[in-house]
Hints:
The chain is mainly α. It has helices spanning 7-12, 16-20, 22-39, 44-47, 55-68, 74-77, 84-88, 95-111, 116-132.
Amino acid sequence: MAPKDTADEAEVRQSPYEMIGGEVAVRRLVDRFYDIMDADPAAAGIRAMHAEDLAPIRERLFEFLSGWLGGPPLYFQRPGHKCIMSAHRPYSIGDAERDQWMMCIRRAMADTGISEDLRTLLDPAFLRMCEAFRSRQPQPASRSS
Length: 145
Ligand code: HEM
């Protein structure tokens, strides 16, 4: 008989998807994310880039995060799915948009009870992705005194 896993060993093998709490918890995170984007004037810039009806993008981001977090790769299994980089190419994305997106996901992670450890792991990964979607470079600091 195989030796029984210790709790620690079982934890090490968990994906972020499982650590968050699976499908229900990922949907909760995505819903909170878009609720914040929809309601907080501080996110008005990126809200305006999205379609009036947020239902389809809620589903797309849920599908994407499901796979990205180590769960079922639903986004890539859907026929006709887009390349995630090309999906962002039509938009003007710079510091302001990155910061607004990160504000929404940070608050959504905290509000939906994602542990601090996991948030510390996911935060820089989300940030890297926002940077990858950037189409506007930061403005050099003004030299005027
Ligand atoms: C840098 C900040 C970001 C901005 C301003 C932004 C903006 C957008 C916009 C305007 C759309 C189209 C929405 C619509 O059609 O209503 C979109 C689509 C999408 N975004 Fe982002 N996004 C950002 C970062 C991210 C990140 C970090 C992720 C993943 C973790 C992500 C995942 C997606 C997905 C999955 C779609 C759907 C693509 C499709 O149509 O298949 N976005 N985004």
